Amino acid sequence: MGTNKRGITVAGKSSKGGGYGSRLPGAAILIFCLVVSPSFLFLVGRGIFYTSSTDQDKISTSSRNQDLDWRERLALQHVKSLLTREVMDVIKANTNDLGPLSLDSFRKTNLSASWKFVGQETPAENSALSFENNQRGAAIKHDISRNKVDASLEEDRSQVIDAPAKVARRQLRQKRREKRAADLVKQDEEVTVKLENAAIERSKSVDSAVLGKYSIWRKENENENADSTVCLMRDQMIMARVYISLATMKDKPDLGRELQNRLKESQRALGEATTDSDLHHSAAEKIKAMGQVLSKAREQLYDCKLVTGKLRAMLQSADEQVRSLKKQSTFLSQLAAKTIPNGIHCLSLRLTIDYHMLSPEKRIFPRSENLENPNLYHYALFSDNVLAASVVVNSTIMNAKEPEKHVFHLVTDKLNFGAMNMWFLLNPPGKATIHVENVDEFKWLNSSYCPVLRQLESAAMKEYYFKAAHPTTLSAGSSNLKYRNPKYLSMLNHLRFYLPKVYPKLDKILFLDDDIVVQKDLTGLWSVDLHGKVNGAVETCGESFHRFDKYLNFSNPHIARNFDPNACGWAYGMNIFDLKAWKKKDITGIYHKWQNMNEDRVLWKLGTLPPGLITFYGLTHPLEKSWHVLGLGYNPSVDRSEIDGAAVIHYNGNMKPWLELAMTKYRSYWTKYIKFDHPYLRNCKLSE
């Protein structure tokens, strides 16, 4: 006996030697039929079962066999002659596992019509089988695919003929599928957790003071269009004005008066409401009354051409009003930015009076020996605002790791010299060194040396600034109003180009504007390698309007030949300057050259940033952006995380933190360095 590849025992070799005996073709036919027709096993098993059981089974089998047609009997006869006892036992065992499935019900599937026994039929039988199989083959295949019995037989057949290696591969594939599914579920869960955490962080950054408190139960949130009634009233008022005009043209005074009365009532009911919840309770009645009058007016006055012309005229008038209001807003914001609040003006006056009452020996600051020590950390601060300067100094010292090594060089004008001295004499910056100077006492800073001073004294510049007929009104010239800011007339603003002249014995100095707040220790800036450059600054070219072509006139050949219009701009406000490299490259001389060429303001408008970009072109080393975050004086959408992580925050723009027009959401960063319970501040009514 021997075992074939499928694990079925077949007849062994004959005693005469040579290949397998006459039973080998039968075994091959069996294996072929098992592969081709999954239902073969069922019928063979049933046949064996009925012909190989006990005597009682034989009786029942004989009765059932009478029902079998000649094809089934023929198949059973051939199968018995083909298979050995061991093979029959295997088939019988598998058939028993199928359960009590009746042969009659199985016969209904007409499976026998699809069987062929190759090499065993007579020619007549073979032709009959072939004919009937061709007629019924398609229907039989369809029935087999839908039969649940065949599904279970397929499973049993696979258990018989599948090799262990194939089963192992199937199990391995199943494990891989399960592992992939588990990994995908885990990834989905991780992504969900990340999204939830990001949403929580974003919700924490929402400023309720700016956005207002939101509740889904508020009346205006009950409707997607919370201002639909307000818009309806406004539309009615517009049409009322149109019909009032038409009533006058068509001599309908009574209707015109009625429209005028309803218009006034609607205006009173609307008031300053922007949402439906803000409307007066009588708004619904006014809308109804206005609608009736408008219907009446439409019947009597409507003329498509006249109404269209009147609406077009009203639209043009509204557009003119919007432009006028924009100019007025620009003018007032620029004006507000130039002014000094009463409280700060009061503070300066009180401090000045008290300073002049001091004896000369009490006006001296301690530790003056540190002023020229190049081994310390030196700061340059040029300001005429006492309160702003105090915030810069206090915030720097409070965040410094070694305050005793910090030296502040303050320069102000003669009007605020006494106040600045008095404030820091009363409020010394701890162990740090401070010194206050008067810019008007710099005798070397005169019109013969400084081109800006000479230009400011010229008749053309005086006319530009002070001539009454010059278009600085709302109707013309307001777009250039910012260039006429008084700070551009002050040498405090241009003194930054003369740092080596003011501090000849220092090697490095950190320049600070008076509208900044320091939030971290800044000593790391002195160890930044500038790679031979003069100026260390944060670049601001994240937007296109912060590039050179925004500040300089590239239609001028001198500018076009020497500079790249797409070069990245940078910011004043916090700059580390290498004064040794400054002297070596003669930065002040470069500044003088270009300032002389711009006497007629053909290269750039007034200010210090355009000449700074020119003077330090190719000589500026970019610093990390976290050193200096800008925009708190004009941009309401500065990222809160950037502000909190910045070493210096800058209120550049018109909305300075000491002005009433400052943005509330940013003002607290500045006010926390002011002691509002100070006697001078209380007397001048300065508060948060």
Automatic annotation (TrEMBL):
GO molecular function: polygalacturonate 4-alpha-galacturonosyltransferase activity
GO biological process: cell wall organization; pectin biosynthetic process
Assigned EC number: 2.4.1.-
Membrane-spanning residues: 24-44
Topological type in the membrane: Single-pass type II membrane protein
Enzyme class: transferase
Highest taxon of source: Eukaryota
Pathway recorded for this protein: Glycan metabolism; pectin biosynthesis
This protein's GO CC annotations: Golgi membrane
First-listed, main subcellular location of the protein, grouped into a coarse class: Golgi
Record key words, sorted: Cell wall biogenesis/degradation, Glycosyltransferase, Golgi apparatus, Membrane, Transferase, Transmembrane, Transmembrane helix
Subcellular compartments: Golgi apparatus membrane
Family as reported in the entry's similarity comment: Belongs to the glycosyltransferase 8 family.
Identification of the protein by name: Hexosyltransferase
Native organism: Coffea arabica
Encoding gene (name): LOC113733084
